[in-house]
């Protein structure tokens, strides 16, 4: 409704409501406006009126002319009707005439058709009589197809009327010729040089001549077999000379296409064709043929696969992965592209071959990697044993360089191998898309078989350098230290890098294959263990080297008859020097954060305070005389109050810890040696000087200097116990001697 | 302490000599000698361990001759023992001596007796450093001393030991013997010695070198022990921290080698009854009981190699129960341990002596015991 309102007020609209309009005007406009509006409307009405008049006038004329035209048409139609009637009568007379003619000609037409029938029969008879001659002619021309067709043409007649004496001769002639023909065809069939097409042709003809299909099919297969085996022999001969791509191409174009052709023609000839003839028989035969074919294909493919496998195996030693993959891809595509058999899936076998190739390639790479690593080791060992490295300053650079280059070499080599192997799974390669292949290759072969195996080999071979039970003196200590660091660094960075690189490049999914994958942490742990083992070994080795020196020095001296100490024994200096050298070497690989500098900055204070405390100890010792106090009691009391110091704690991967370990072993040895001796007063004082000297120089290398002090105290204590006349030297004198030394 | 069922016996003095009373087969007895430079103070303690009530009964004797470095006991006479001791004479000189002593039959609880010297030895002509005097395993009239670079074979039937034969080691840098031991096999005609890193065994009838293994350890060879049940096996230990077992018919490689200690190993002992149990004492203040099951005489895994499934099953069971090589039990001391000995009468008891004079008598853990006996 709301919409209609404006329409009702539209003066030109179809729903115009004059009353409402007027109401609206009266309501909304002033009188003057209404008057103007009225004038306007009157004027409009007038124009509309005149317009209507002109329109009516014009249309009226048109109407009059239309009436005239209709009238004229009426007259014309009447004339046409008359003419049509005339036409109908004429047609009727024509029909009657034609009927008459037809009946007149009927008789002669019958005669003609009879005559032509006789002619045909005669012609056929003539063909029959001529058949032997024709066949012979065809035979001579070697036009076997035509001959067969001719024979088949006449065959039924001969069969039907062959018993009549007139035809007997012909039939026997034909049969003999036919035998000849069959012989000929068979000969062609079994001719080894015949092409597959020729073969097919003769089989086709023989079949048409109703030879037993079974026999034929077997014969066909055997001759096909012969030719395929020739192909195989050729392939075999070629396999050693040609490279693998050529070999595969040769196989594809020769053997496989032949096989395809044979299968196709076999199917055409024996399987699809028989269908049409005789349904019951054909089914049995078809099954038979299919089985035969299956076996045949299987055998031959097997042989071919064996050959390819052999070739691939041959290729491994010198394989260039790209060519190999290319060749394998072609091979695979060819196998996949053709469906050789209904039941047997040859792609699976092909995948197996490719898989094997992949595995072998991985193995070959693995052994190359191993070899390379062994070479690197040898090289590093040689580099370390050349004397310039040990003594000079530039050794510092070389050692870290050596380490880095070692890591880089190993990582790069492995990466190179991965890059090489990635060809196997590149997206263009057809077989790489198969999950079956991909999983086994990527996970079993590349990740587990190559990368993980190599990492395990790394640890194993490193560990072998200092295997249990055999202390190999030939392995220089620095090498062991270096290898330990190598393991550590490798664990920290490269293991993860290599594994994630592998996972990424070979798209290994951790969630899906989690179980089959060796955990990264497992490898890291073994690496860590190896590093720890080597480090322990290093500490022990260096410790024992120092020990040996100390032991000899104590054992060879007569401590009962020694003069008053004037200097520090040379051995002590030597030990300190050695330890400094070790420190320098270790520092190249393990840079401790700040501890060393922190120590040295306030070294003066520390030494001072320590010597004060030591002085107190000394005063203890010097104060008691054998008669006064039982020394054992004192030492036990002292032990009771001092915390038990773990002398042989595990070594950590830091310079301080390494040196602490070495120093601990050396000092412990010193203690043991001292305990085995008996000292005079001067002997004891010599030990006192030596321990003080060691204390002056060794504290800086260890993390907890109390440890050194504890061991040195213990040493001096032991010496006191082993002394016949335990009188210690004045500390100030000891200081002077040590400073002078 | 790592082992709850061990008993501690403390001495007032430092000590490094411990010996089981070999001829005593009823009681568990160990003999300790103290090492103190004050001559009058040195003692010999005979410690008897009562296993049932885990108590220790001691008898103390004076050893006034000097500080004791080594004690050995006679395997035939329970009361006889030999000591190597250091005598201080004058103010500033001391010299090593060795003698055979006799423990008294009856003990006087009020009075500490001085042990009677049965046989004295005059060793001056052989050298100054006496390492050990070893009783012959089955001839009560024989003993051998290891002095500097000599092995001296004594007739000890009299109060003065008579030298029967002396075997001298020669070589560069005046090599000395570290220790020596009779080979209990081969009719006890062989005496094995350790010198530096080498092992040398002499035939005492001829004085010739019978066999030897060179560079047996990386550093000084400290101690040796024969396996009572396997006649070609010998255990060695040394300053390189290794314990090794050798089959001395093939000397290129040890049949067993472990590196469990972190300092010198001073002593190694086969258990007399179950020779897969090996005791080693080290100056890292620990005694280790470890298993060498793979080379033990009780290792009959070869016998079990049968096809019969039933036997195979038992074999697997057997393998499951069988010990693998490696550490079994640690005993912690406060100071270096120089001696550890099995009791000759009780297969599951052993004693270890640390330098601070503490004797620890321990038992093999019960679980291990069952594992071995099964």
Automatic annotation (TrEMBL), chain A:
GO CC term (a single one): GARP complex
GO biological process: endocytic recycling; Golgi organization; Golgi vesicle transport; lipid transport; lysosomal transport; protein transport; retrograde transport, endosome to Golgi
Location, primary (coarse class): Golgi
Keyword vocabulary terms for this entry: Golgi apparatus, Lipid transport, Protein transport, Transport
Domain of life: Eukaryota
Domain Exocyst complex component EXOC2/Sec5 N-terminal positions: 7-241
Subcellular location: Golgi apparatus, trans-Golgi network
InterPro entries, per database record: EXOC2/Sec5_N_dom (IPR039481), Vps51 (IPR014812)
Pfam family, one: Sec5
Keyword Transport in annotation: yes
Function comment: Acts as component of the GARP complex that is involved in retrograde transport from early and late endosomes to the trans-Golgi network (TGN).
Assembly with partners or alone: Component of the Golgi-associated retrograde protein (GARP) complex.
Family membership: Belongs to the VPS51 family.
Name listed for the protein in its UniProt record: Vacuolar protein sorting-associated protein 51 homolog
Species of the source: Sitophilus oryzae
Lineage of source species: Eukaryota, Metazoa, Ecdysozoa, Arthropoda, Hexapoda
TrEMBL record, chain B:
Record's keyword annotation contains RNA-binding: no
Coiled-coil annotated spans: none
Top-level lineage group: Eukaryota
Keywords noted in UniProt: Repeat, WD repeat
SMART domains: WD40
UniProt cross-references to InterPro entries, sorted A to Z: Beta-prop_EIPR1-like (IPR059104), EIPR1 (IPR040323), WD40/YVTN_repeat-like_dom_sf (IPR015943), WD40_repeat_CS (IPR019775), WD40_repeat_dom_sf (IPR036322), WD40_rpt (IPR001680)
Biological processes annotated in GO: protein ubiquitination
Record family assignment: Belongs to the WD repeat EIPR1 family.
Protein name stated in the entry: EARP-interacting protein homolog isoform X1
């Amino acid at each position: 409704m709301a919409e209609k309102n404006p329409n009702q007020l539209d003066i030109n609209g179809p729903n115009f409501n004059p009353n409402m309009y007027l109401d609206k005007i009266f309501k909304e406009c002033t009188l003057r406006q209404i008057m103007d509006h009225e004038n306007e409307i009157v004027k409009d009405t007038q124009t509309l009126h005149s317009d209507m008049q002109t329109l009516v006038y014009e249309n009226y004329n048109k109407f009059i002319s239309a009436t005239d035209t209709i009238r004229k048409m009426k007259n014309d139609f009447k004339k046409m009707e008359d003419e049509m009637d005339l036409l109908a009568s004429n047609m009727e007379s024509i029909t009657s005439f034609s009927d008459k003619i037809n009946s007149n000609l009927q008789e002669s037409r019958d005669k003609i058709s009879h005559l032509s029938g006789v002619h045909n029969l005669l012609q056929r008879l003539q063909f029959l009589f001529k058949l032997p001659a024709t066949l012979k002619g065809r035979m001579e021309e070697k036009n076997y197809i035509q001959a067969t067709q001719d024979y088949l043409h006449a065959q039924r007649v001969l069969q039907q009327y062959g018993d009549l004496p007139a035809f007997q001769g012909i039939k026997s002639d034909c049969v003999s010729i036919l035998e000849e023909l069959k012989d000929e065809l068979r000969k062609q069939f079994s001719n080894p040089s015949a092409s597959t097409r020729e073969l097919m042709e003769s089989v086709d003809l023989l079949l048409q001549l109703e030879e037993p299909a079974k026999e034929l099919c077997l014969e066909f297969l055997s001759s096909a077999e012969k030719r395929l085996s020739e192909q195989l022999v050729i392939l075999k001969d070629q396999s050693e000379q040609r490279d693998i791509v050529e070999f595969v191409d040769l196989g594809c174009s020769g053997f496989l296409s032949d096989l395809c052709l044979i299968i196709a023609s076999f199917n055409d000839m024996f399987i699809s064709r028989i269908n049409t003839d005789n349904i019951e028989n054909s089914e049995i035969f078809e099954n038979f043929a299919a089985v035969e074919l299956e076996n045949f294909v299987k055998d031959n493919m097997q042989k071919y696969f064996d050959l390819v496998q052999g070739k691939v195996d041959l290729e491994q030693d010198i394989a260039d992965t790209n060519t190999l993959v290319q060749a394998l891809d072609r091979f695979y595509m060819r196998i996949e592209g053709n469906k050789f058999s209904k039941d047997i899936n040859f792609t699976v076998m092909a995948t197996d071959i490719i898989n094997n190739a992949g595995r072998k390639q991985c193995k070959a790479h693995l052994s190359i990697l191993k070899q390379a690593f062994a070479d690197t080791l040898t090289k590093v060992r040689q580099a370390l044993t050349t004397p310039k490295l040990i003594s000079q300053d530039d050794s510092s650079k070389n050692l870290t360089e050596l380490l880095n280059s070692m890591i880089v070499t190993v990582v790069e080599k492995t990466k190179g191998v991965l890059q090489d192997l990635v060809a196997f799974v590149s997206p263009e390669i057809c077989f790489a898309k198969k999950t079956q292949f991909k999983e086994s290759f990527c996970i079993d072969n590349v990740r587990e078989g190559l990368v993980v195996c190599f990492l395990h080999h790394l640890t194993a071979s490193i560990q072998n350098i200092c295997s249990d039970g055999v202390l190999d003196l030939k392995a220089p200590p620095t090498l062991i230290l270096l290898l330990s660091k190598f393991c550590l660094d490798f664990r920290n960075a490269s293991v993860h890098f290599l594994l994630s690189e592998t996972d990424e490049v070979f798209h290994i999914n951790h969630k899906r294959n989690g179980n089959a994958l060796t955990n990264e942490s497992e490898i890291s742990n073994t690496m860590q263990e190896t590093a720890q083992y080597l480090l322990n070994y290093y500490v022990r080795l260096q410790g024992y080297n120092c020990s040996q020196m100390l032991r000899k020095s104590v054992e060879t001296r007569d401590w009962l008859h020694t003069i008053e100490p004037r200097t520090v024994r040379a051995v002590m200096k030597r030990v300190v020097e050695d330890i400094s050298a070790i420190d320098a070497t270790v520092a190249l690989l393990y840079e401790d954060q700040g501890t060393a500098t922190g120590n040295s900055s306030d070294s003066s204070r520390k030494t001072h305070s320590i010597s004060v405390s030591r002085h107190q100890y000394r005063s203890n010792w010097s104060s008691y005389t054998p008669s006064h106090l039982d020394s054992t009691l004192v030492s036990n009391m002292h032990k009771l109050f001092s915390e038990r110091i773990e002398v042989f704690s595990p070594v950590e991967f830091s310079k301080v810890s390494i040196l602490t370990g070495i120093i601990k072993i050396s000092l412990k040895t010193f203690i043991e040696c001292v305990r085995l001796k008996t000292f005079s007063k001067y002997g004891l004082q010599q030990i006192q000087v030596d321990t003080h000297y060691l204390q002056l120089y060794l504290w800086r290398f260890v993390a907890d200097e109390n440890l050194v002090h504890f061991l040195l105290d213990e040493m001096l204590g032991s010496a006191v116990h082993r002394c016949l006349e335990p009188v210690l030297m004045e500390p100030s004198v000891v200081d002077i001697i040590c400073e002078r030394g | 302490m790592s082992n709850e069922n061990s008993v501690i016996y403390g001495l007032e003095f430092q000590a490094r000599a411990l010996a089981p009373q070999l001829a005593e087969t009823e009681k568990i007895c160990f003999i300790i000698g103290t090492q103190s430079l004050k001559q009058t103070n040195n003692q010999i303690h005979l410690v008897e361990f009562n296993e049932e009530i885990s108590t220790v009964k001691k008898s103390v004797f004076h050893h006034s001759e000097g500080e004791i470095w080594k004690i050995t006991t006679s395997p035939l006479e329970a009361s006889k023992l030999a000591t190597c001791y250091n005598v201080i004479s004058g103010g500033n000189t001391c010299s090593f001596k060795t003698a055979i002593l006799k423990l008294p039959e009856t003990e006087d609880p009020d009075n500490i007796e001085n042990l009677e010297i049965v046989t004295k030895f005059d060793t001056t002509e052989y050298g100054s450093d006496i390492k050990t005097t070893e009783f012959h395993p089955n001839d009560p009239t024989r003993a051998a001393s290891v002095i500097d670079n000599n092995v001296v074979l004594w007739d000890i039937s009299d109060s003065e030991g008579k030298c029967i034969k002396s075997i001298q080691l020669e070589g560069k840098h005046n090599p000395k013997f570290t220790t020596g031991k009779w080979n209990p096999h081969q009719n006890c005609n062989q005496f094995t010695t350790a010198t530096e890193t080498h092992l040398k065994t002499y035939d005492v009838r001829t004085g010739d070198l019978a066999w030897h293994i060179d560079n047996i350890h990386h550093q000084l060879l400290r101690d040796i022990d024969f396996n009572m049940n396997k006649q070609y096996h010998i255990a060695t230990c040394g300053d390189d921290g290794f314990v090794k077992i050798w089959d001395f018919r093939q000397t290129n490689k040890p049949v067993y080698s472990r590196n469990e200690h972190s300092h010198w190993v001073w002593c190694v002992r086969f258990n007399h009854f179950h020779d897969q149990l090996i005791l080693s004492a080290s100056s890292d203040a620990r005694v280790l009981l470890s298993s060498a099951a793979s080379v033990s005489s009780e290792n009959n895994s070869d016998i079990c190699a049968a096809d019969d499934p039933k036997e195979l099953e038992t074999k697997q069971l057997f393998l499951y129960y069988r010990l693998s090589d490696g550490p079994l039990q640690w005993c912690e001391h406060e100071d270096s341990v120089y001696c550890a000995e099995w009791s000759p009468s009780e297969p599951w008891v052993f004693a270890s002596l640390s330098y601070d004079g503490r004797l620890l008598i321990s038992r093999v853990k019960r679980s291990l015991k069952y594992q071995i006996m099964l």
